[in-house]
Amino acid sequence: MRPGDIFVSSALLPVFARADLTFERGEGVWLIEKSGDRYLDFGAGVAVNALGHAHPALVAALTEQASRLWHVSNLYNIAEGEKLAQKLVANSFADLVFFANSGAEANEGAIKIARKFQHAAGHPERYRIVTFDGAFHGRTLATLAAGGGQKHLEGFGPKVEGFDHVAVGDEAALKAAIGPETAAIMIEPVQGESGVKPVAPAFLRRLRDICDENELLLIFDEVQTGIGRTGHLFAYQAAGVEPDIMTLAKGLGGGFPVGAVLATTHAASGMTPGSHGSTFGGNPLAMAVAGAVLDVVLAPGFLDEVKRKGLALKQKLAGVIDRHPAAVTEIRGEGLMLGLKCLVPNGEVVAALTNEHMLSVPAGDNVVRLLPPLIVSDAEIEEAVEKIDQALEDLEKKLAKGLSAAE
What is the pTM of this model? Predict the structure, then answer.
């Protein structure tokens, strides 16, 4: 240590405010802490564990692939990647897929594809992308600039140029932001990090029209909404509008790191050998697991069940609001991507839920996200609602005495 250094008990960079919980294993919708206590997981690794923990199909796919081949690099054909790409193309608007390792990487790829498209079309001056207030597109320097959140940008120097932000739903401001340097429009169909805010389908359709009128590309960031989270394989399908480029991650790997950029042949017309790449993107392990995830999610009736269970959870949460009007005021979201708008600090609600052995995720606008694995059962939904009820009742009593949820 050097003079002035602060001693810390962990060798990890202190960029996470971690809860004092250490999980040793998982079973479906449950996580088991080192103490042996079981926690109902309605965070799902922030919408990542789409099929819960230790799903047999995913364990089998990973184990079988791990026994054969882990990594060869993209200098060679990767059969598992070709197979997964075909599945994604067959079930979406897209013609082509690029595999990355995370949502931020996928969004970086989408930005590059949009800029390269305009350059190849003879418009190198068109590099700017219109994004929206409240967006979150990742933690790299470019995706931070795309999101525009000041708290995320602060301290990292000048933000990356090329992004113009407007309010969601403000068509006049959007049109005013489009100029001779604009290449694309980028949006999340449901803004997750800023408080589970669905974008009106009518506005998404207007974005499609505006892009067509101005020869722009439309990018949908479905890192959090994709792979069944909203009750549709992709959220754009519910809106009845197709993007030119779409990004995926989180649920695609069911817990294994993977990201993807999907695009039409037209949108990707500028991408040639050497214009983009990834050392680990599309590795055999990730491709095998993601392929197994898609097989489960695309099985007949699976997405219908997600819609049904999402509606059931939403209806039961309405009763919670009726019983605790001083603590929670609104339910937001689609499918099994729901948010509780809180009247008390959302961190207190998350802590109160943790006390009830239920995990949740805080979000902007004082919202608590409920993101259970898509395999959650009716009985587990019922148990979750009971835990929320009890947590809010206990929290209200503590706040009335001037205490916090942790006390």
Answer: 0.95
